[in-house]
Specification:
By secondary structure, the protein is of the alpha/beta class. It has 12 helices and 10 strands. A hairpin with a 2-residue loop joins strand 3 and strand 4. Helix 6 packs parallel to helix 8. The chain binds a DNA duplex (14 and 10 nucleotides) through strand 2, helix 2, helix 5 and helix 6. InterPro entries: BRCT_dom (IPR001357), BRCT_dom_sf (IPR036420), DnaQ (IPR006054), Ribonucl_H (IPR013520), RNaseH-like_sf (IPR012337), RNaseH_sf (IPR036397). One of its GO terms (molecular function) is 3'-5' exonuclease activity.
DNA sequence: CTACCTCGAGCTCA
DNA sequence: CTCGAGGTAG
């Protein structure tokens, strides 16, 4: 099985510009050069994949550098082979050779001595690039690693790193939403996994164990990944009210309601539930059936310029056509449902 | 109905 | 970066 997460495909055609093109579009081309065209974030795996981890001198791919890289290739749950190398970053300071500061040494155990004889990234770039091939990359918050690799491959080889990837942190947040945190450390404890953290190869092993535990859990508990692969907006028409709470004397009873804008006191689904309990019915768009349009705040919402959403404009037109439709302010709406929310 | 955009909140990586 | 809650266009 091989799911694909939908993503806007911002493919940029490069270098077709002629010298006579106006400045405006040249600037656009220029800005596009800094967009990373990465692979796709997956939620399930093909048979072959590579677990990867980097140690770096910091968080920022722009200023910081890779000091260790490790990968393990798997076929299913079986380890095939691995790749490991220290990487020598550019030294800092004067005479004495310093590659990493105390904080990073303390965190990772990697010292200047270990990097003196290490290859630079450009020396391993080809071998690593070939090793990774077009395999799916697995890692914890793997975007971090992908971004470092992307920049380094681009710089050293002039090519983009476009491999698809699976992020165990994303998977964990979906599978175990009740965990307070989803750091690798937390999952290591949660699943009782042994091993010292912050060494690249160890972290690969830990990440792989986390991965298989998560996949087992997802399998056993029928976790719905489809929802994240094809996100759907909540369908208000699917709501069913509690009949015992129906209030035939309420003006909303038996009427069709639509919301626009952001409500102060509720998310829309909860407000819709209240309407349904009264005995009303909620829809997602203004139609010939609509009796009430409830207006939340439109200020923050993009594309609503003149203070009127398209729902509001449509409603005003229908009212002119004689439809039994009233536009309610948010506070009027609260007055109407007051009795039902106790 | 389906697809895609946008914003803010919350979080993890060395 | 991802998700959820809002929007629009076709």
């Amino acid at each position: 099985m091989f799911n694909i997460f939908k993503k806007k495909d911002k493919v940029v055609i490069s270098l077709t510009s002629s010298p006579k093109e106006p400045k405006e579009s040249e600037k656009l081309e220029e800005s596009k050069k800094y967009i990373r065209h990465k692979g796709i974030s997956l939620l399930s795996l093909p048979d072959n994949y590579i677990v990867l981890d980097l140690e770096t001198t910091g968080y920022n791919p722009h200023f910081d550098e890779i000091i260790e890289v490790a990968c393990i290739r798997y076929s299913g749950s079986e380890k095939i082979d691995s790749f490991h190398s220290y990487v020598q970053p550019t030294p800092y300071g004067d005479d004495s050779i310093h590659y990493v500061d105390d904080f990073i040494t303390k965190l990772t155990g990697i010292t200047d001595d270990m990097l003196v004889t290490a290859p630079k990234f450009k020396d391993i770039a080809n071998e690593l690039y070939d090793y990774l091939g077009d395999s799916v990359i697995v890692g914890h918050n793997v975007n971090f690693d992908i971004n470092f690799l992307y920049d380094n491959f681009l710089k050293c080889l002039g090519c983009e790193f476009k491999n698809d990837y699976l992020d165990t942190m994303r998977l964990s947040r979906i599978a175990l939403p009740d965990l307070p945190h989803h750091r690798l450390k937390d999952l290591k404890e949660y699943f009782s996994i042994d091993g010292v953290q912050h060494r690249a190869l160890n972290d690969c092993q830990i990440t792989h164990t986390v991965l298989s535990k998560l996949l087992d859990y997802i399998q056993e508990n029928n976790v719905d990944l489809e929802r994240y692969l094809h996100p759907k907006r909540f369908d208000l028409t699917s709501l069913t009210g509690d009949v015992t709470l129906n209030d035939p004397s309420n003006p909303l009873y038996g009427k069709h309601c639509v919301f626009t804008g952001k409500l102060q006191r509720f998310v829309r689904k909860d407000a819709a539930q209240i309407v349904c309990n009264i005995g009303g019915c909620c829809d997602n768009s203004v139609t010939k059936k609509t009796n009430f349009l409830i207006i939340g705040g439109l200020d923050d919402i993009p594309l609503v310029k003149d203070g009127k959403s398209t729902k509001m404009k449509k409603a005003e037109k229908l009212i002119l056509d004689g439809q039994d439709l009233k536009i309610l302010s948010e506070s009027t709406f609260y007055d109407l449902i007051e009795d039902s929310i106790k």
